[in-house]
Amino acid sequence: MKQITLTPKKFSSIALEFDELIPDEIYNWDEAEFEKYMVPIGNTRFPLNDYFDIEVKGSAQGPEDVKMVIDGNAGRVKYIGCKMSAGEIIVNGDADLQAGAEMTGGSLTINGNAESYVGREMKGGEITIKGNVKEYAGTSYIGEWRGMSGGVINIHGNAGKQLADAMSGGEIYVKGNCDILAGIHMTKGFIQIDGDVTRWPGGQMKNGVIVINGKLGRLLEGFESEGIVADPEVDGRQLTGRYIKYNGDIGVNGKGTLLLSAEKNRSLL
Amino acid sequence: MAYEEPITDYDKIVENCTCAFCGSNCDDLDILVKENSVVGVRHACRLGASKIMEDEDQRLKVPMMRDENGELVEVEWDTALDAAAELIASSIRPLFYGWSETNIETMKPGLELTELVGAVIDNQATICHGPTVQAVQNVGYPLMTLGEVKNRADMVVYTGSNPMNAHPRHLSRYTTYPKGWFRKRGRYDRTLVTWDPKYSDTAKLSDIWIPFEENGDYEFVNAIRAVLKGKKLTKDVIAGIPIEDIYELTEKMKNTQFGALFFGLGLTHTLSKQRNIDIAIQLIQDLNKYSKWVLLPMRGHFNVNGFNIFMSYEMGFPYGVDFCRGYPRYMIGETTTIDLLNRKEADVFLVIAADPGAHFPSGANMHLVDIPVIQIDIHWGPTTELADIVLPGTFVGVETEGTSYRMDSVPLHMKKAIDPPETCREDEWIVTELLNRVKKIKEASK
Amino acid sequence: MEYILKNGIVYDPINEVNGEKKDVMFKDGKIVDNVSDSAKVLDVTDKLVMAAGVDVHCHLAGPKLCVGRLYRPEDERRGVKPKTDITRAETGFSIPSCPATGYRYSRMGYGTVVEAAVPPLEAKHTHEEIIAIPNIDIPPLPLFGNNWFVMQFVKEGNIEDLAAFVSAWLKITKGYGVKLVNPCGSEAWGWGMNVHGIDDPAPYWDVTAREVIRGLAEANEMLGLPHSIHVHPNDLGHPGNFPTTIKTIDCMKDIKKNSEYRNQTIHLTHAQFHCYDGTSWRDVTSGAEPVADYINKHDHVTMDMGQVTLDETTTMTADGPMEYDLFELTGLKWANKDIELETASGLVPFIYSGKNPVHSLQWAIGLELALTIKNTWQVALTTDSPNAGPFIRYPRVISWLMSNQRRMEMMDNKEVHGWAARKSALATLDREYDFYDIATITRAGPSKIYGFKDRGHLGAGALADIAVYDLEPNNFDPSINAAAVEKAFGNALYTIKDGEVLVKDGEIVKVVSSKHVWTNVQGMEEEEKRVLEQIMPMFNKYYTVKFENYKVHDHYAEPSCEYKINASK
């Protein structure tokens, strides 16, 4: 087990890019290598140890043995955990753009808020955000219709606009509220939102499942109601409670499923 | 309105010049010249004419830099260029913005400079039709050249766009009034439709006006698509429109021979942003099952599309391109101008042929106050108030030739009618000078 | 500067050199018969030497490329390569950026690539892209097959004026030859319709593809253009389309050729897409045999393969309606661009997979055509890039043509679906191309097809456009070494263009500007003037640009390589 602790000591308004510091790349680095490392900032590289106090303990045979802790606010550190396949990264604060993007395995925990693009094009692994996320959590790359395809994202706070755009697999759980157009262009996957949703979940979705346990502000005409279902089983999952079940988005001949809590959405009955 | 006599006192007419204002790029302007001065212009609308005829007003004539009191004072070209080059060469997150009102020939050294120093290069699409580009990247781009509309269209729809104010000759030169090959009666052979929450000047001329509620675009178009698929709408009113009107509109659109949809910032800037265009594009694609439909974004500057095309063919991505890691990256929200300014990441800002002082959200402009700003422009404007170094360019389309791309991507070679003021320099020259001086600085530091 | 390329094994079919150990000498950009002792020696002992590649058909420079790039950032992202001291950054996999396009062709030893389809209204855009593409010469082919003026002249039977129009338009667009794409069909697409077969009239114009093909072929020969008409027939991609293809190449066979260099009066492009039998995607089979049979019996036809490479790529053609059909089939994002008075175009991403029965059959058909047509001078190697696959796969296609073992392996190992073997004759064809054949279909033949006397061969006077590959023909069996063939042809040992070494050991060492190659017909000035006056009222009324601004100004086509030809009267 190797634990790498990076304690932020200097703030850079120009964001640092951490795509090279993932367990896959650094599992066999000792403290000296970290001290030597030049982290990309803008068009230049600067010593990592200008910005972080670095401590390395233990050893690792592979990335799965690595635990990297950023012990503080990483609000200007982009690409944390980008493309990682194993190991654990913990951020004791906020994380900047692209956290966990293209991840294929391992786990990333953000004990603060995450900026946009957390878990972009994720293929596997697990991301947990204790705070809120901004736009495009669990999204695809612009233009790419095959988006997040695996893995799990747990958002304890609120999710911003256009959650899980073009999702094609995997699971997302939002404990808080969610903004417009969650699951837009979705083709597969499972999204569960426990809080309230402002407008239009599942726009242009072809398939996949969206479960909303809170109140929905506005529903799209592209969804046709099948009536109320009790304790439905979807995608091999057993849900409890009464839901209004919708199929859609018929505008794209979609066969997706939208389940709205019957109790919270009585106005739609 | 007083009657004004036609202008008769001129030496020559330079015919078929291309207008340097909006994305209509009207190329039939006749510029009347007397002794290297423009004394009149024919065929331009009031926007294009005002840019040409009011050019003298607050024209930037000399290079300037701020003195110790913070006032802009005249300096030598070398002084200004060297100072600008120093700033660019030593910056860590340089951002080169604008480009939409200059020629392709100027963008070339601009891109080369970007590649050299690892900067971000971006244009007005980032605050304008960027969401259109994003929507296109998600779902497709069923386009045509404007002549197709002129010759074939029997239904023309404007949404989120008010051409009578923003593209004044659009209807008369291209889409609605001209007598096309298959529409020999012009306006009488076409149905003009406006979808707009407000009763705009374009709506006033239209045969059908659909005032869906603000931010209702996505919901409204989603309903039309559902109707196309045979659904009976459940609500009585959708986005403020009674469903009978939605059924009627859908039928009309299905049964038209050739329909064209034009759209603008009413779609790109309201609640669902790029998804408004996303769903409109999919609607157009759906309609092609029944009849023929095409669409086109109403680009606002004469070369905003040109920059996107230029960047696409040079470096694959259309705008918001970041070269800081030695290869181009395109990531909306990360490599785009407003975000870089809001996050206070840009440390040197070069603005050319654009006016962020007037058009950016104030949060972004507040950061421009704190960093060096280099302006290349022809007029004093709000951006000049933010600039630290001012480099006076020349008027592309009147004083300088060059290439531009119309909103429908037709390339045009813009002529020149007069010579520029002696104290000004062509944009291409200025940017090339910056490039060469930065190269020297980089060589010297090796 | 003088150079001598020493001791290579040379394949130069135009000069009938077949694997001879021979020196190739060049001076000041041209091949010469001898050089002085101070010539710089490039030792290529025993290595494979050919003229630099000549590509007859590719989509690499023009408006629909930018629609593609703009709307497929996910494709651009795939091919990203950081900048080096000599090269700029590269982007794009199936639709590379302009610099990437030039570097990638150059690394494969190519020197000339034809841009296959240019709408005249946007020709300046094509030329701007040629300026941005380094290291290869590019002749563009403007589109004529759906042009309103062309259809009017054809309807009137007025071939003299049509010829003057073509002559004028080649000057206006700085174009090289006459391209037809789905004649009359892309005009029908202006109404969302299409035509089927060559006798289906375009709506309103009431003119058929047969008439347009014949009219343009006659005009082409009247002018004596260096290339013949270049035709993408109607019904592309439809099961049962091979009769349309044969009718297309047959309907003008009586028109006499007016050129002493090329052999054909019609070039059939990306033939693979036009050789399907059956009635639907369920019962489709290969229609390659009847088409190849026709070509074997008629020497007025040449073709290029349009070989499917089994990649995720982007389709883009001026065949607007076909692209819409593809959109309905795949549901992937569809782009379209109709051009007033001239043509249409469309794009859809496409994922060719060896697991898919239809794609596997398509893969087989392209190869079947190349292996069934006897005369290699009638065959050119293309993938209709990027439609059937990106051009960077040419080395792979070469390796397939040279190795029956590899083809059988792909069919036996299920790298392709069983339909490839069952529904085409590919599994029965054990013919293998040798290096001479490859040189024929990738350089010698193409240059003859285009009337390029100055390239595609290594005789004295030719441009010093030379490629050297890291293969030793005397010591190497391509039929059992497909992977090595692909690697070698993808990374030239040397690529030399106009006598300058641009590539060494597969890396770009020098970047030069590309030349714009176009045909300047002399002797038709009066006729052109008259025809322009005649059509000007229609031009002024129905186009949305002024005629003065329509042309490609000289500075867009610099550096230029003009082929001046004298129109025969």
Helix tally of chain C? 19
Widest sheet of chain B: strand order? 5-4-20-19-18-6-7-16-17
Round the Cα radius of gyration of chain B to an integer and report it. 23 Å
CATH fold-level name of the largest domain in chain B = Rossmann fold
Distance between termini of chain C?
42 Å
Largest sheet of chain C: 9 strands, mixed
Q: pLDDT under 50 segments of chain C (min length 5)? A: none
CATH architecture of the largest domain in chain B: 3-Layer(aba) Sandwich
β-sheet strand percentage of chain C: 15-25%
Describe the 3D structure.
- Chain A has 269 residues and is mainly β.
- Helices cover 4% and strands 36% of the residues of chain A.
- In chain A, a hairpin with a 2-residue loop joins β18 (233-234) and β19 (237-238).
- With 446 residues, chain B is α/β, with parallel strands linked by helices.
- Chain B has 2 domains: 64-127 and 302-396 and 423-445, Rossmann fold, CATH 3.40.50; 130-297, Dimethylsulfoxide Reductase, domain 2 (3-Layer(aba) Sandwich).
- In chain B, α2 crosses α18 and α3 packs parallel to α18 (427-445).
- Chain B starts with 11 loop residues before the first strand and ends with a helix.
- The model of chain B has no long low-confidence stretch (mean pLDDT 96).
- Chain C has 2 domains: 2-51 and 456-508, Urease, subunit C, domain 1; 138-450, no CATH class.
- The model of chain C has no long low-confidence stretch (mean pLDDT 97).
- The two termini of chain C are 42 Å apart.
- Chain C contains 19 helices and 24 strands.
- The relative contact order of chain C is 0.17.
- β8 of chain B pairs parallel with β16 (334-338) of chain C, so a sheet runs across the interface.
Task: Compile the SSE list and pairings.
The complex is a heterotrimer of chains A (269), B (446) and C (569).
Chain A: E1 2-8, E2 16-17, H1 23-26, H2 31-36, E3 38-41, E4 44-47, E5 52-58, E6 66-70, E7 77-78, E8 88-91, E9 107-110, E10 126-129, E11 149-155, E12 168-174, E13 188-193, E14 197-199, E15 209-212, E16 216-218, E17 224-230, E18 233-234, E19 237-238, E20 242-248, E21 256-261
Parallel strand pairs in A: 1-6, 2-7, 6-8, 8-9, 9-10, 10-11, 11-12, 12-13, 13-15, 14-16, 15-21
Antiparallel strand pairs in A: 1-5, 3-4, 17-20, 18-19, 20-21
Chain B: E1 12-17, E2 29-34, E3 37-42, H1 46-53, E4 64-66, E5 72-74, H2 77-90, E6 94-98, H3 104-117, E7 120-123, H4 130-139, E8 140-144, H5 146-152, E9 155-159, H6 163-166, H7 170-175, E10 191-195, H8 201-205, E11 208-210, H9 217-228, E12 237-238, E13 241-242, H10 243-255, E14 258-263, H11 265-268, H12 274-287, E15 292-297, H13 304-315, E16 321-322, E17 329-330, H14 337-342, E18 348-352, H15 356-359, H16 362-370, E19 373-377, H17 382-386, E20 389-392, E21 402-405, E22 411-414, H18 427-445
Parallel strand pairs in B: 6-7, 6-18, 9-10, 9-14, 10-11, 14-15, 18-19, 19-20
Antiparallel strand pairs in B: 1-2, 2-3, 4-5, 4-20, 7-16, 12-13, 16-17, 21-22
Helix pairs in contact in B: 2-18, 3-18, 4-12, 9-10, 9-12
Chain C: E1 2-12, E2 17-27, E3 30-32, E4 40-43, E5 48-51, E6 53-58, H1 63-71, H2 73-78, H3 98-107, E7 110-118, H4 123-132, E8 140-142, H5 148-156, H6 159-173, E9 179-181, H7 185-188, H8 209-223, E10 229-232, H9 242-250, E11 266-268, E12 276-277, E13 285-286, H10 288-297, E14 301-304, E15 312-317, H11 320-330, E16 334-338, E17 346-351, H12 357-372, E18 379-380, H13 394-402, H14 404-412, H15 419-422, H16 435-450, E19 466-469, H17 482-490, E20 494-497, E21 500-504, E22 507-508, E23 516-522, H18 525-542, H19 547-550, E24 560-566
Parallel strand pairs in C: 1-4, 1-5, 6-7, 7-8, 9-10, 10-11, 11-14, 14-18, 23-24
Antiparallel strand pairs in C: 1-2, 2-3, 5-19, 12-13, 15-17, 16-17, 19-20, 20-21, 21-22
Helix pairs in contact in C: 5-6, 5-8, 6-8, 6-18, 9-10, 10-12, 13-17
